[in-house]
Amino acid sequence: MHYRITLEDGTVADSTWEDNEPLAFALGDGTLSPGLEQSLLGLKAGDHETLMLAPEQGFGYKDTGNIHNLPRDDFDPEMPLEAGMVIGFTLPGGEELPGMVMEVTESHVQVDFNHPFSGHQLNFEVEIISVEN
């Protein structure tokens, strides 16, 4: 399928139409949020729909437990940190987790590990290219 995700204010957050590479996935493989998967059920090749997903159907609400104040000393002193930048953090198991810098002071860096789309109503425009069993 091709898709375009826009936020409440019309900002395009992600799209496959620009690079002309449709997204291939299997239902239940974790590529899409469960709410989006549910909204796609019953669509067939050639269908073009615009779906509105509330936060609980998309990426959930922001969890304040996923916002952390990390010591500034944990970061390379030469690293230019500023609000809005996304940094990749390596977890003990080797997985990478992105975090968005929210605030930088001399003593700490506040990082939001919530999904960037959490807390937003999302508009998904989808065009189904093909459906296979």
Describe the protein's topology:
Blueprint: E1 2-6, E2 12-15, H1 34-40, E3 48-53, E4 67-71, E5 86-90, E6 96-104, E7 108-112, E8 122-127
Antiparallel strand pairs: 1-2, 1-8, 3-8, 4-7, 5-6, 6-7
Descriptive labels:
single chain; 133 residues; mainly beta; Chitinase A, domain 3; Thrombin, subunit H; 8 strands; 34% strand; elongated
Beta-strand residue fraction: 25-35%
Q: How many β-strand runs?
A: 8
What is the string of SSEs from the N terminus onward? EEHEEEEEE
Mean pLDDT: 92
Rg, rounded, reads 18 Å
CATH class of the largest domain: Alpha Beta
Structural class: mainly beta
Helical run tally: 1
Report on the biggest sheet.
Answer: 4 strands, antiparallel
Helix content: under 10%
Please report the distance between the alpha carbons of the first and last residues: 15 Å
Q: Walk across the major sheet and give the strand order.
A: 2-1-8-3
What is the total number of structural domains? 2
What would you call the shape?
A: elongated
- Give the CATH architecture of the largest domain: Roll
Contiguous low-pLDDT stretches (5 residues minimum) are none
Structure description:
With 133 residues, the protein is mostly beta strands. It has two domains: 2-60 and 117-127, Roll (Chitinase A, domain 3), CATH 3.10.50; 64-112, Thrombin, subunit H. The chain contains one helix and eight strands; from the N terminus they run ββαββββββ. The chain has one helix at residues 34-40, and strands spanning 2-6, 12-15, 48-53, 67-71, 86-90, 96-104, 108-112, 122-127.
